[in-house]
Amino acid sequence: MNGKDIGAYLRPRVLERFLRYVQVDTSADPDSGQHPSSPGQLELGTRLAAELRSLGLRDVEQDAYGYVYAVLPGRRSRSPMALTFCAHLDTSPSVSGTHVRPIVHQGYDGGAIGFEDDPNLYLTPGDSPELLKFKGDDIITAAGRTLLGADDKAGLAAIMTALEALVHWTEWPHPELRIVFTPDEEIGQGTDLIQRGRLGDIGYTIDGGEMGELETECFHALKAVLVFHGMNVHPGYAKNRMINAAAMAARFVAALPAAETPEHTEKREGFFHLTALDGNESRATAEMILRDFDADRNHRRTDLLRQLGTAFQTANPGLGIDINVSEQYRNMKEVLDRYPDVVGKGQEAIRAAGLAVITKAIRGGTDGAQLCFMGVPTPNLFAGGLLFHSRKEWIPVTALTKSAQVIMELCRLWAADSGRAGTTPGKD
Predict the structure, then answer these.
(1) Residues 185, 186, 201, 213: which is the catalytic one?
(2) Out of 3.90.25.10, 3.30.1370.60, 3.30.70.360, 1.20.120.530, which CATH number does the structure's domain 220-328 have?
(3) 417 classed as catalytic
(4) C-alpha separations of 142 from 113, 182, 388 in Å
(5) Which of 40, 100, 132, 308 fits a 20 to 30 Å CA distance from 17?
(6) Is 59 marked active-site?
(7) What is the pTM of this model?
């Protein structure tokens, strides 16, 4: 069986699944207080669980929190380990995921791609230079009013299609597979209620971007909530009396380093990112996330917040500022550096699928970062989409197909490995 045969089998199946999955609105809702945060995630999870059962997987469960689990017993495998593949059910709340209408643009010609529902919107190589790598391929976008949902329904489709192929091709070896689909990854809750006992010894999230990517490093992530307490007085009699909490919050944010924001940083540069600012004269709240690849540098951002807080309160007697900082996730490189075989097999599987390996650090986070610190070393593999969380989100059909193929190649490689995923000597 060669790569061409595999691709011919996978391509129509992964495309059909992807087009079907993206039409279920699974937008996460950070304000719902529910787990999962939106009903569409339960709906899609129910459909996936039924599909897993129809493929013959065992121990299929959709639990009360929306997680979907399943097991495919090993076959022709020498490996003593169980391997987890993970993707998330939800999509970003930043752009609407309601009534997604996917469009397949056949035979991309290298120019601008228009959107049926918004004649003023175009996707061009200027927006995403990677488009030019896929001239002649079929490109999928939404119709223009919503995101597409390739993050991470491409990952769901790739895993499900690879499982179908493994069930179909009984001669293809694989270790025991533990599948998990998580809710609410986009709002940082993807592993909060996960059942660790349902996972394998090692894992791979299928949640990355460009075809060929393998991500082994991510941000160190902090969240800061600042509450400003002022004193309101009638504005006609406020001189030397009023302490306007909302104004103080705005000035505080403006005092942060202007160059250290997402719109001014790239590559390995960290940032402060204001995500919410709300309030009135008496009380105001600023929420922000702090990101860096180095934990010490990121904690220095916390120090700066506290120093500014002290300075503002000293300069404005009567102003109160409460600063609460919490850790959201850590850089998975801390763990993956100790498991070179997990990363190495990811690279080998990408090459076996006929692709060049693109090693990147994620300017964000994945469920894999959390799983690493739960004892499951989990790098992140490409799902194939680009311009995530936007109305211009797109994915080539070839990337979808190759994502499923890489999963199959990983199964083959791990099935041939009779050892355990050991650590680098001296780094335990």
Answers:
(1) 185
(2) 3.30.70.360
(3) no
(4) 11, 23, 12
(5) 132
(6) no
(7) 0.90
